[in-house]
Every structure is written in structure tokens, then in C-alpha cells.
Amino acid sequence: MSANLILHWPLDEMSGQRTVFDSSGKGNLGQVSGDAKAVPDEQFGSALAFTGTGQYVTPVGGRGMTVPQYTVELWVRTDKAPAAATPLVNRRNSADLVINVNPDGSVEHRFVTQESIGNTHTTPPGLFSWNTWQHIAVTNDAATARIYVNGEAAAEWDYPGTRQQRDPTPLVVGADLSRKIYTAGRYAHVRVYDGALTAAEIQRDMAEDSSTLAAYVRTHPLDLELLNLDEQAVLFIDNDPAGQPMRLRLTNSSRQNIEFLPLGGTPTAANFHVAARLRPGVLATPAAVSSGASGWAAQAAADGTALYLVAANAAPIAPGAWVDVPLTGLSADPGGGSRGTRVEFDYQRLRSAGETAELTGTRLQYLDVVNHRGRPDIPLVMGFAGGDTVLNDGVTPSTLTLYVANTSTDTTVTLAGGGPDKGGSLFTVTFDVGADGNDWALAESAAGVSVTVTAPGTSTAAWGQVAHDLGTRASWTLYPTAGMDLAPGKAVIITVAGVVGLRDPGRAGIVVGYENIPGYRDGAQTLEADRRPLAFSGSSTGVGTLAPAAKLHVSDTVLAPTTNGTLLIGPPAAASLKIGYGADHAWLQSGPNAVLSLNPASGRVIVGATSTTTVDAGSKMTVVAAYSHLQLRRTAGTAGSGTQVFLELYQEQQSATVYPAIRFHQSNKFWHLIEGRPEGLFFRFAGDTTSMADVYAAGLKGSTLTLGGTRIGEAELQILSRLAAGTLTVTLYNDEIRATASPFQIQNGTARPYVVGLEQPNQYNLMQRFRLVPVSS
């Protein structure tokens, strides 16, 4: 850990003085106030329940702690949203180190700096769920404060100010004593560290706290196993007349002492604490079974189908502890040869310490009956060929290839034909099955699993097989239908296909056994398959696929961009990058209300080509295509109408004047710009910012036209149009002071239409000036 644990209240039990234990080793016992109780709980076995006013936990004697840097963690389960902010953790009469949950499902973290007592940051709403266990953690490293919800970073704040807090006030869980607000619910595993933990360290605490088998433990407080001296569930077919020494192991998997209620007399079918029931023909009869353990007596049924045990004066079994009861005189019946069988255990007349109810129940175990006659040094080695991984997505079928190789350099191993009914040689492949949470299981079931065998000189058809459903185990017996020799250096290849691994990561055993091989004892080797999302093939890695097609190949189901995708970088509730794919597309998506930024620090983006394509070094984004480089589309049915902005060129406010422009460029031929200015749009030659470019159009619509310094409006253009068409009529005005005499009379100020020569001389042989005014009709 990156910090020291200074307090850990599991809150799973209370002492008679209503104190809770501190498992940190620092002696910070907690004092429970009010009538809070430790109650049974499916998640943690038991937890501290607060039901109302006056219930909280604080250190015994009001002992405080100074934590300038810290991590505070706890599990909490509240039934419903509060009407206002409600406290989970704080300090008595202090504003420092406060964790509240708000009605909108957000989590609030408050603390004190030298500059302020109101430093607060909050997660987005909806992260805290009601009526289910939630893990909340807050950290502060004197510069950055963080909030984690269920192990995921939910808020982060690089706060201003200096934190050198030396607040000695004690911690309070479940209440704000200054405001007299109490938070009802269940609490478990409160931790305080003297520094800021990482997300991985917080998740490690969560994993340690969680007990996925808690419900199972309550209904199955006792585990039972029949084991040999090698700690294996194997019963030998042996020539020793004294039989094989075995042991019955009783393990207390509950959280309380288990006691044996008094029983007297000889163990019988009606008088026992523990009974082990076997199928007929498993034990050699009569079975002279006894126990050498003090306080224990054992007796076998006359037909060898059961063993009965009584604990006359046995001590209680502590939580997590076990007791081995030695058994002698056991021997397997050789008539059935090597085989597998089940043992059903019954237990009764037991109780948990401090309780009166009797504990009764059953457990099931798989037991191998193995031939122990012959040489033990068979030169067979088992292993995986091509990888030991089963994908743990609960969906994808995986294939495992096993080999049984003759590693001898000079000895041939003979396999007898005929199968199990005729004493032929057998190979068995066995693995455990069970639901998620059973770490020992490879798959949930054997449904869809197929097993095939090949060997040198034989085909698949030359091998027979029998599938066995053994409850918690799946097993296949494989045998050659005719005898064969396995030469030195050769191998039998066993392919196990269609294995859908459990979702829980981990390793699971696959037992490869061999039986009835002439001259050798029966035996088995356990191979460990790896349940994980990663698979390796050569130098490639696959996630969700066993056959990676690239250095890193991630395969998943089709996911929508509203999910976390196939690849998630960062906290899902904050700024993050999500990558996924649909049925006909791939997608990139940022986290809620976050920005997706491409090459923000430096570099360029090219679409439709690679960096080997020649592009403008100053261009941040280049689209390479034969046609239709870019389309801005507004889909049908989108709300809104009227003017909608499809493209905007935006220059932020600055002192220098910048004219946004669009450039049209054909290499080595021309450059043109459309330039935006306060006056309007300018069409320019890109290489000469003072020269205008020509504009060609089939039509031009507008209200005015300015040529040089002359502005022409609609009326002037109408005159030119009529003049060009020969339909312009004008009124001629004499603007001279003196009158004219010839060739006709034109009076000053009159407006009469005439067709005249503009250079008509007057009586003084002088030229006159005239003004033309268009006639409106």
C-alpha cells in the first residue's frame, strides 16, 4: 500500500461493551452509540445496522486523528434517497473530512485548508444507488481531492490553498452530531489511511471485503472431504490387507464456532454426527473401519455403502479451522477397476455457538478409485498444446488441446483395447463445473463441450468415449477400441472444444488420468487452465478472442455508443475515451459532457490516406478522396426549422485583425480565396491579397452594385436595361439661363418630350447643355 492503515472497523460484530474491533493493529476501537445492532448480511455475513436517531460509531474515548493527507473508505447500504444531504462520515463538531450523500445520488466530499473551511467537490448525480451495497472512498494528497464510487474514480479536484490540517477531533460514522442528522442503513469496513491510495489499492480493499460466498456459507457452514495422505480425494485399489489410511476433514466455513451436540453409543445409521454414503461396490466388504482420533468413533455399514462417525468428546471447530479425523481399514473393491464415484455426506446434531437451532445438511464430493498396482514410473507426461486459456466472457466457446506424450527414449507404452467393459486402457479428462463465484470451476456446465482423440496411426473413429455427469464435475472416459502402441516421443492428442468459461477470472484444474495401462499403476496429472479475457498466439494478444488477428485484437459483442464500449480509457462517469463497434460501423465516444480531442498537443489528422501522402504541412486536418470529400448532413426528423448553421469559420477575440477565409487551390495552377471581412465577402487571388478574382455565375441577385467608387442601385440598372433594349424615353431640360431660338423653342424649366441633337447650336452659334431625366411611363 502507498499509505499506512490507521483504522479498520469491519463492523461485523460488537463486544459486550458495545465496541467494535479495530483490525488495523493501531488500537482504535470504535464505540457504538444508540441501539445499533450487528445483523446477518448476505454480502458480508454480518454488518452494523443503524435504524434511527442517536446511532453512530466514534473512537472509544473520543480519540482523534490528525491526517493532512488521507483515504477514507466505507461500505454503506441505505434503503432510500434522503430528503437532504445526509452524512456518512465526518468529524465531531468540525467541517473537515466530511462525506455526504445527496438526494440526487451524488456524493459530496468536504475538507478544510488554511485558506478556507468550505472546500467541497461532488460527483455527478445518479452514481449512488439505494437499497444495495455501495463502496465509497475519498482521498486527499494535499493537492488533489478525489471521490471513488464502487472503486471507480467519480470526481477529481486540484483545489487551491494549502492543507496542513491538524484537526484532532474524532471521526464519526453515520451521523452529523452538530446538526443532529443520522443516516439509517447498514455499514461495513470503515478504513482510514494516512495518505492517498490509488484506485487499484482501493479496489484491492473492496475485493478483500467482499464475500461472494456469504449466502452459501450460511446454508453450508460445514465442508467435508474424504482425503488420502497426499491430500487427494483418491481411494486406491491396493494389495495391502490393512487397507488404505484416509482422513475425513471437517472445515468450519461459517463465522461462528461449531459445536457437537452430545451423542453416545456406537455410530449407526441412526446415531451419527457425520455420515459418508457411497455407491455399492466402492468399498471392499466387510470394511473394518476405525478411527484413531481421540473423542471420535467410526463404523462402516455392513454392505460397505456408508461410514458413520460420532464425536464423543470433540472440541468445537473454530471459524475457518478444520479437524482431520483419521480412518483406517478402507480399501476399494477391485472388481470395478479404476473409476470415479460420488460421496454424499450428511451431518446432524451440530449447532453454532450460542444458538439452539440444530445444524443439518448435506455435501457432495467426487472420489476417484484408482488402481495402485504396478510400476509407478510410467513415462507419460500431460500438457497443453497451443495455449491454456479459456475466455472468461461467459459466451465465447474455447478449445483446449491436451497431449499425453511418451517421453521415454526407448520404452513403448502399450494401450490395451476393448474399453472399460473389457479391462482396456483408459484416459479420462475431468474438470469441475459450477456457476460464477465457484473459483474451482472451469465452466458453468459441460453443455456443448465435445472431446475428440487422435494418436499416431489411428483416426478419431478408432477411439471410443463415454461422457459422465458427476454433478459438480464433467468427465469423459476415452479408450482405443483396439490395442495400440505409443512409441517413444509420440503423443495422444485430446481436443476439448466448446468450453464456455466462467466470467470470474482465475485458474481451474483439468485432471487427465490414465487407467489399466499394462504394467503400470493408474495415475493422473492436473493441468491448470487459465480463465481470463487475454489469449496469446505467437507475438499477438487477443482480448475476447482466441485467435488474435493483430498484435492486439479486441473482440466483443455489438455495443451502442451509449454504453462503455469495448475499450474504455478513463473513468466512465467522467472524461474518458470509449471505443466500440456496431453491426456496420465502428465508433469513438467521449465520456458524459466531455470533449473528444484529436492531436491537441501537436501533429495532423489525415482521413483517407496515411502520412506518406503529400499534404500541406500547415494543415491540421486533411481529407483525401477521389470525390465527395466532406458532407455536412442534417438528418430528417431533426427538430428545428429555418436557418441552421452547417459550417462556421470562427476567430476568437484578439487585438490583431484576422479575416477568416476559404482557399481554393489547384497545385501549380491557381489559388483563390473567399475572405470574410466586416464589409462583406471578398473574392481574391490567394497569392496576391490586394487583387480581386473574377466571379462567374449564371445569375447574380442583390440590392446594389459598387464598381470602383460608384454605387449602382436597382433603379440605375433598370435604366441601363431599357436603354440597351431601345425602350428608354427621356425628358429633356434646358439648364442654360438664356433661351434658344432655333431650330425650335425650348423653354427653361419645361419638361416636354422631344427628340433632339445634343449639339444643336442656338442663335448665337453657341452650344447648350441639357439634362436628361427618364420618363417613368
Content of β-strand: 35-45%
Count of discrete alpha- or pi-helical segments spanning 4 or more residues:
3
Helix content: under 10%
Overall pLDDT confidence: 84
Q: Report the span from N to C terminus.
A: 98 Å
Tell me what you see in this structure.
The protein is mainly beta and 777 residues long. It has three helices and 56 strands. The strands form 15 sheets. Strands 1, 4, 5, 7, 12, 13, 14 and 18 form an eight-stranded antiparallel β-sheet that branches. Strands 20, 22, 23, 24, 25, 27 and 28 form a seven-stranded mixed β-sheet that branches.
List keywords for this structure.
about 775 residues, mainly beta, 8-stranded antiparallel beta sheet, 3 helices
In short:
This protein is 4% helix and 41% strand.
How would the blueprint of this fold be written?
Layout: E1 5-9, E2 19-20, E3 30-33, E4 37-41, E5 45-50, E6 56-59, E7 70-77, E8 86-91, E9 94-101, E10 107-111, E11 119-122, E12 134-140, E13 144-149, E14 152-158, E15 171-173, E16 175-176, E17 181-182, E18 185-193, H1 199-209, H2 214-219, E19 222-228, E20 234-237, E21 244-252, E22 258-260, E23 274-277, E24 296-300, E25 306-311, E26 322-330, E27 339-352, E28 359-371, E29 380-384, E30 389-391, E31 398-406, E32 413-415, E33 426-432, E34 450-454, E35 463-469, E36 473-480, E37 484-486, E38 491-499, E39 506-515, E40 523-532, E41 534-537, E42 540-543, E43 552-554, E44 567-569, E45 577-581, E46 586-590, E47 605-607, E48 621-623, E49 661-666, E50 670-677, E51 680-685, E52 688-692, E53 704-707, E54 710-713, H3 714-725, E55 730-734, E56 770-774
Parallel strand pairs: 20-28, 30-40, 42-43, 47-48
Antiparallel strand pairs: 1-18, 2-3, 3-6, 4-5, 5-18, 7-12, 7-18, 8-9, 8-15, 9-10, 10-11, 12-13, 13-14, 16-17, 19-21, 21-26, 22-27, 23-25, 23-27, 24-25, 27-28, 29-31, 31-38, 32-37, 33-36, 33-39, 34-38, 35-36, 39-40, 41-42, 44-45, 45-46, 49-50, 50-51, 51-52, 53-54, 55-56
